[in-house]
Amino acid sequence: MHVLLVYANPEPTSFTAALTTTAAEALRGVGHSVEISDLYAEGFNPVAGRHDFVETADATRFHYQTEQGHAHAAGTFAPDIVREQQRFLRADLVVWLYPIWWGNVPAILKGWFDRVLAFGFAYADGKRFDSGFFPDKKGILCLTSGGTRERFSRDGVYGELDQVLWPVQRLVVEYLGMQALEPFVAYAAPRVDQAAREAYLAAWRTRILEIASARSTIDMERTVS
């Protein structure tokens, strides 16, 4: 199994970084291959624009989705987009790891969605949700929060987590036709003690290996049949 970890946190000693390292080490330890897109370390530019393309379909009026479709057909995406798209295509499982900020993903990850998951490449007319391009890929959100589990509940101040994550879980992962797995959340990561952090990491290690094992079993069954 090949796994892409899209990691979005500017601090190398963050708990998001620990979750990323845990996943990579666990997966590699049982023979899976792993790539990491470290968006901050690699200087990924989250701002969409004309620089996304080495040529444009219409030099007089810039329409982003039209230009994305042209670039996909003509092979004229900028090199950083091509790099990330190739990483995405290679992956059987994509894991997005990030701290939840203002109820959403960090801007750098939103920019990754905007620029990399382009029209023509990641979706098209009639190619969304159940008819999307990537039914054989799995996707999971792995995030940290400052708020406690209670705050992300029906009676909590932030509302239920499913509602908070809807713009990414439904309108990105499921939109692409991927198998959207239940998110993994380390609640109140900056506030809990070391024992709780270690428990989160152990639970995450178990979860990611279970996902990889399930995929490996399916692949073996397909090979045998």
UniProtKB/TrEMBL annotation:
Q: Which region is the signal sequence?
A: none
Which Pfam families does the entry mention? Flavodoxin_2
Q: Which InterPro entries did the record assign?
A: Flavodoxin_fold, Flavoprotein-like_sf, NAD(P)H_dehydrogenase_qn
Q: Name one GO molecular function term.
A: NAD(P)H dehydrogenase (quinone) activity
Cellular component per GO, a single term: cytosol
Question: Where in this chain does the record put each Flavodoxin-like fold domain?
Answer: 1-207
Instruction: Give the highest taxon in the source lineage.
Output: Bacteria
Keywords annotated in UniProt: Oxidoreductase
* PANTHER family per the UniProt record, alphabetical: NAD P H OXIDOREDUCTASE-RELATED (PTHR10204), NAD(P)H DEHYDROGENASE [QUINONE] 1 ISOFORM 1 (PTHR10204:SF34)
Name the family.
Answer: Belongs to the NAD(P)H dehydrogenase (quinone) family.
Q: What is this protein called?
A: Flavodoxin-like fold domain-containing protein
Q: Which organism is it from?
A: Rhodoplanes roseus
Upper taxonomic lineage: Bacteria, Pseudomonadati, Pseudomonadota, Alphaproteobacteria, Hyphomicrobiales
